[in-house]
């Protein structure tokens, strides 16, 4: 349900305005302090189409973080820098500034490694070599993969694989670094609390992660149907840590997302893991995955939300299993005195779901660290969206009826819808992909979710939490368009970024809910939703929702961005957002909008939008509902993090995977590409775009290695950012 400008203002609580929903470039928004940066596509820079054609006939892409005039940025830390007894990891994502009177901490997630660029730059950045060439040669006849777990411990190939896998897992996880502000500049001030929680914490150092909740019964179960790592409740490491959130009591929640790249995702009917062989180790020119395989990591221990207290040097993380196991992207916490705690998170996959955990007990003091205990008992729910803007939360417990999502309800991929469901052969376990409604309906032979899983009551609940995504599909929870970040404002309203409405191998979004401006599906460019619980009660089981921002070209009614991702709310009620377009689409040449008589796909048209960028969306006042570009990222990167200081004068951003496709930019190489652009009223013209080949950021001089890094953005005059 995409709403009109007038409906937006009514839903946001403002008066209906007369201006159309649009973005500003070249004009200062009435309610914002900065001059918007200039993107490669026209927004509203000129009064006429001819003005836009003239201004945008050429465009130079810059291999740097481009911020507004009068603003500056500085690098806080980059990949390879020392952190505690380890190093700053790779592909930093979520950032949280935890401020205190005596000290402040930055908690940072390290999501994944970009295989090609990581291997190319590792020897120089880390100062040691790894046997990449030898292992690639050994695996060439095996298609680049092997079940290294099955190799004897003293096998030389296994030892080489373990060396590579360890280093890759060290570069993932969570980091805590202490910082202080000196004359308005943020500096690292290393303390005992500085530490890394890596993908192998506990493997050799005893720093195991802990777990709470119903899934613990599965970890401790002796007679598992599937693989047993013999560690019971102890967990080795955390990885694929993407977005996250902060709690009002000063801890952070770190979201394990695409864990299926390192360990098996499907499980047996009792919630136990598949054998490590189901996700072999992979090493090619572009990939270094399956890194859990050589160490026999149990797949059911990954895909959780991890809580860490940055101020506690001995805290290496707790996985709260009542929050569910799925491809977590971000988290928003709502704590209201006298009410249950509510925790929202999305599963970032095509056809993923939006979830809410509601605690069993109520919040007593909002800022009390004892609130962490509320995460240990409650219930997980999935969102069911209705096309009229209402919705309900469906409990994921053994009593919930099986009422599967049907393939005909989701956006088709190559002419057919796809839904992943628990395998009806429960002895075999795992999942099945169904494309026919009849096959989905056949799952109703199991009356309840409890009938799908094996064990006593608590074990069945634990298994459902472990298999949350597939259980949610079986319960009829709405399939969504890659729900990524979530944030809650002071009034308790939830904002959700949906990155992409295209279907894929995991499924697709509900085709009645996730439509473009003309009702079309698939719609690639994304949405931002506002969701309000009935009576603003965090424990409510009903809500209303509306899409308040639409990605896409202005000529089609979009706001000028594509693929919204991380969100942050400032003290003025403005919504900050960064985009996550696939690296392969950045600045992709578009010499024509038709090819062989067919329209170029929306996916490929993302080349129009250039590099990933950061935006501000005012939610009140004369610019309410407009989108204003604040920053543009370096080459082939994703902007992540978005953490504002309490005084609103500093914005921390993670610059992830610069040079992911092109690697190190050689001799400042650049090429000219042609792209057929459109003015805001739809007239076509050709742009000559200068595009750097690869990246040298953050060093920015010839032959500098591209490195992910954490930066802080400030105004030069020391005033508030927006």
TrEMBL record:
InterPro entries associated with the record: PhoX, TAT_signal
Highest taxon of source: Bacteria
Pfam families from the UniProt entry: PhoX (PF05787)
Protein name: Phosphatase
Organism of provenance: Acaryochloris thomasi RCC1774
């Amino acid at each position: 349900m995409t709403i009109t400008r007038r409906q937006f203002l009514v839903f946001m609580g403002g008066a209906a305005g007369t201006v159309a929903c649009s973005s500003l470039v070249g004009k200062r928004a009435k309610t914002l302090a900065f001059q918007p940066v200039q993107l490669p596509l026209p927004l509203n820079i000129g009064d006429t189409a001819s003005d836009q054609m003239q201004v945008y006939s050429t465009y130079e892409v810059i291999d740097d973080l481009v911020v507004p005039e009068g603003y500056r940025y500085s690098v806080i830390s980059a990949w390879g820098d020392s952190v505690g007894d380890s190093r700053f990891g790779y592909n930093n994502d979520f950032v949280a500034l935890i401020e205190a009177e005596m000290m402040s901490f930055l908690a940072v997630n390290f999501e994944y490694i970009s295989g090609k660029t990581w291997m190319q730059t590792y020897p120089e950045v880390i100062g040691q070599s790894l046997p990449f060439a030898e292992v690639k040669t050994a695996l060439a006849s095996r298609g680049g993969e092997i079940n290294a777990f099955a190799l004897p411990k003293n096998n030389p190939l296994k030892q080489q694989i373990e060396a590579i896998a360890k280093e890759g897992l060290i570069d993932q996880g969570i980091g805590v670094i202490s910082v202080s502000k000196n004359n308005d500049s943020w500096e690292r001030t290393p303390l005992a609390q500085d530490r890394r929680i890596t993908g192998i914490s506990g493997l050799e150092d005893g720093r195991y992660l802990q777990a709470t909740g119903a899934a613990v019964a599965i970890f401790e179960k002796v007679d598992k149907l599937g693989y047993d790592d013999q560690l019971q409740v102890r967990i080795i490491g955390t990885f694929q840590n993407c977005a996250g959130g902060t709690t009002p009591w000063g801890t952070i929640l770190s979201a394990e997302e695409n864990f299926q790249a390192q360990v098996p995702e499907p499980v047996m009917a009792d919630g136990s893991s598949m054998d490590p062989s189901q996700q072999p180790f992979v090493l090619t020119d572009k990939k270094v995955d399956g890194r859990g395989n050589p160490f026999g990591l149990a797949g059911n221990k990954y895909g959780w939300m991890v809580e860490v207290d940055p101020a506690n040097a001995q805290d290496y993380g707790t996985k709260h299993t009542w929050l569910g196991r799925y491809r977590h992207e971000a988290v928003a916490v709502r704590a209201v005195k006298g009410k249950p705690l509510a925790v929202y998170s999305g599963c970032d996959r095509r056809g993923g779901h939006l979830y809410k955990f509601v605690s069993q007990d109520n919040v007593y003091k909002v800022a009390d660290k004892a609130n962490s205990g509320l995460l240990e008992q409650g219930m997980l729910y999935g969102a069911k969206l209705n096309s009229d803007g209402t919705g309900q939360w469906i409990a994921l417990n053994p009593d919930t009826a099986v009422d599967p999502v049907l393939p005909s309800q989701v956006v088709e991929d190559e002419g057919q819808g796809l839904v992943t469901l628990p395998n009806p052969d429960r002895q075999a376990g795992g999942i099945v992909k169904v494309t026919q409604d009849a096959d989905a309906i056949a799952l109703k032979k199991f009356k309840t979710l409890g009938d799908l899983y094996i064990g006593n009551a608590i074990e069945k609940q634990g298994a459902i939490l472990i298999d949350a995504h597939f259980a949610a599909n079986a319960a009829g929870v709405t399939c969504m368009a890659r729900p990524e970040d979530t944030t809650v404002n002071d009034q308790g309203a939830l904002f959700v970024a949906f990155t992409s409405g295209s279907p894929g191998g995991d499924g697709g979004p509900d085709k009645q809910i996730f439509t473009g401006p003309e009702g079309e599906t698939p719609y690639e460019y994304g949405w931002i939703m506002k969701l309000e619980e009935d009576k603003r009660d965090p424990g409510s089981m009903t809500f209303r929702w509306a899409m308040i921002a639409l990605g896409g070209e202005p000529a089609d009614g979009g706001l000028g961005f594509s693929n919204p991702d991380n969100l942050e709310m400032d003290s003025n009620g403005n919504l900050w957002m960064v985009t996550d377009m696939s690296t392969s689409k950045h600045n992709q040449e578009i010499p024509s909008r038709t090819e062989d008589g067919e329209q170029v796909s929306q996916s490929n048209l993302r080349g129009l939008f250039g590099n990933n960028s950061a935006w501000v969306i005012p939610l009140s006042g004369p610019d309410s509902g407009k989108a204003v570009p604040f920053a543009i990222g370096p080459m082939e990167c994703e902007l992540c993090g978005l953490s504002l200081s309490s005084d609103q004068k500093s914005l921390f951003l993670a610059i992830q995977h610069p040079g992911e496709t092109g690697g190190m930019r050689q001799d400042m190489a650049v090429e000219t590409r042609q792209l057929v652009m459109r003015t805001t009223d739809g007239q076509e013209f050709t742009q000559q775009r200068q595009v750097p080949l690869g990246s040298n950021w953050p060093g920015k001089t010839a032959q500098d290695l591209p490195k992910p890094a954490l930066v802080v953005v400030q105004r030069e005059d020391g005033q508030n950012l927006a």
